[in-house]
Amino acid sequence: TANSETTIPEGSVIGSTTYTKHSVLETILEIFVGFVGFVLTTLVVYLLLNKVTPNFIQKVSDERISVLEILKAFGIGLATIFIVLLFIILLIFTGIGILLAAILALLFTIVCIIAMPILTVKITNTLKPVLKIEKDSIFYLVLILVSIILYGITLIPYAGILLGFIINVTSIGLIINIFL
Fold it and tell me: Model-level pTM?
């Protein structure tokens, strides 16, 4: 970004151009709101899933994190994304499957929203015996810390987009792998 508005030669742009200068405080506030939103989403997803489906949280936490499991989850997540998008497109083209395509898209959106918080829970539960976490309050603090670290990874310029994509695809794969 530039410190001041640049001048564009007349006739090079059709229509009007606008310049909005962003302050550092606005940028920090946007990042902070993103952090708080992600931490709250993680806590709500954990509490909700722990109350509604405690077996799901147990299944997520049972397997240890290994390189082979991460690669398997990434492959399953990538395949899931392509298959779901293919089914949605095919259902839309059938004409009568538009409602079903919308429902599938909604379900997939929900999976995408809860994917990273579930990975956060998995990492936190994997760290539980290593850090000897016995109190719930300490577990929640570690959960918040892990969620901040995962969100922070996605903020890295350029690489954060790729790492965020890899994290989300792997998270989706972990969720789908539980049901396979």
Answer: 0.76
